[in-house]
Structure formats: structure tokens, C-alpha cells
Amino acid sequence: MKILQAKKLSNSKFEFASERIDLKEPLVLVFGNRFMLQDEGLFQEVRELFPDGHLVFGSTSGEIMGEKVLDGTVVLTAIEFEKGHFMVKSKNVSEFQHNDDALGRCLSKEFPKEQLKHIFVVSEGSTVNGSDLITGMEYGGNGSIGLSGGLCGDGDRFEKTLASYNQSPKEGEVVAIGFYGESLEISCANFGGWIPFGPERMITKSRNNILFELDGKPALDLYKRYLGDKASELPKSALLYPLSVRTDGGAAIVRTILNIDEERNAMILAGDVPQGSKVQLMMATVDDIASGARSAAKLAVQGRNTESQLAILISCVGRKLVMDQRTEEEIEEVSQIVGKHVPISGFYSYGEMAPFAGHRSCKLHNQTMTLTLFSE
Asked: Are residues 176 and 226 in the same domain?
């Protein structure tokens, strides 16, 4: 596996982290600030650097390269597989009337299953229901194939997110990368570090990812009461207090509030919040989050047969807001576990996709550190 990384500041050219090497038909992951991705010249600039590259773009709430967390930049990781190979497909939510389950099914069917090891998803993050997208992609037994990825970000603005494959980034795109070959070893894991607090309440009215009532009372009113003065900063302030959602017999999943609906007194979350589930507020300290990242890395490296050659990290914008000036600590924790020499790329997101430890089926998470490790 050959890897080349670079970063681009506003109004400047890409700066490569090492000496330029020629790569043959590489996979080029380009994660960056939404405003920079909107620049029509960016796609052409990357295309000129990699004329035969497969270019995948995604907007972020912060870029990860090495042990650094950047803002207002574009980071690029180009990968040439020496034995394995990959295939990239994309769809737009507008083609499916925002039926994310159908989009996932259609996207999944585009990948031949022979020797398919893993699918990595870079999805638009503003309107997609990540839970439905995963359900669609795993339909018909595809849950036996590894699946991970994340929902694109837009800082803490929540205005719009962009993604694309081999074209200028645009709204509504969902990009999936299928990895093939017996030589490839790909593992993934996630962990949060958030702590539940306050009373546990029951979801008495919800529809998919829209939460209307808790214990028979308007959910948004209750949430605002907990936030106090911070309620005026919604939806941004909700990133500091996500929800723990637990169904009977299932592991608790963390959910972030993406937006609020004042007219219906409801909250719109990044993934499903099933009626009858139990809900608690959550909070975390910087040390909790850094420790959670370390736990995620330990889970990702457990049982691997080969040493990692590339790590793609997707962490949540909420974690970044809590950690503030200490955000890089969680990346450093990961680097210590996977190996200081292992190239790291990734971004801060509006949602993370990965299975729970010991399981194959993927789930949508919020406020977690998610790793996907590659080697061949």
C-alpha cells in the first residue's frame, strides 16, 4: 500500500507531507471545510494532481491529518493498493424522494459481492437518516460485509453538507467505496466516553428520527428546561448534551440533535429514536472523551493479523466542541495505540457508522470516535 498525504490552506496550493511519488489510479480522499469545497477550482486542482485518481470529497466539521486537527483547510489522502482493489459508487438523496432506505439498497446492489471485504461510506449529513441508510445497505444479508463511515459536517453551522465522487462537491450525495481482495484486512470500532445523567424517560411519541414526546410531554420543552440559558443557542448547544437511547435488550446508542422544529415542538436527530425506547441526557469531560478514543483504538486493533497501514478516523463535532483547544488529545490517544508510524486521515462529522464491538451489523452513532484500519 502506497500513501501520499497533503493539506491545503485557504488561497494556497496543496502542501505534501512527504516527497511526491507516482501513484497508479489511486483512491483520493479529500476532506475539507465546506466553503473551500464550494470553490469550483478545487476539483480541477485535485484532478490535475491525480489525473487517473478516483476522487471522493466530503465536507467536515474539522479535518484530521496525522495527529493534527485542522479547521478551514482541505486534507488529501491518496492510496494505491498493491494487491487489493476498490470500486466507488454514488447516489443522490433527491433521486429517491429522500427515502434513505431505498437509496442504501440501490447503492449496495451496485457492488459485486465476490471478495467484497468492506464498504466505507461518505454521506451527506444535513438531511439523511443514517439509520435508514445503513438498514438499506445491509438489506438482504449484506450485514455480513464490513460497513463503516460517516455523515459529512459543516462546522457547527448545520447549514448544508457536500460530498461527491469524480465531480465537484454538491448537496445530497452519498458515496460508497467497496474494498476487494483476499490480501486486505480491514477492521473498525467505535467508542464514546459520554456519561448518562438525570432521570431516564420513555419515548412516547416519535417517527423515525423525529422525537415528539418524552413521558407524554413535548420533548423539546423538556430539553430546553435542562439546557437553561443554553437553549437560545440550539441546535449548536445540543452537541454538548446528546441523548442516550436504549431499546429493550439492545445496547445504548448516542444520538445528537441535528435540528429543532419549533412549530411541532420536536427534535430532529441524526438517526432513529424508536418509540418505547428509554432516553437519558449525557455529558462528558475532556478526559472522558480522550479515554473513549483510546478505547475505540484498542477495540479496532484487537485480533488483527497484520499491522495497520492506514487509519481513517471519524469523530463527532460534539466531541470537538467539548474538547476545544485539547481536541488533538483524542487523535494522539489513537495514534499511540495504532502506531505512530501509521498515516491517519479523517474528519469531524454529524454521525459515525460502525458496528458495536463483537458484532458485524453496523449502527449509526453520534458523539463517538470511529476508526477504520486498513492493511494488505
From this structure: no
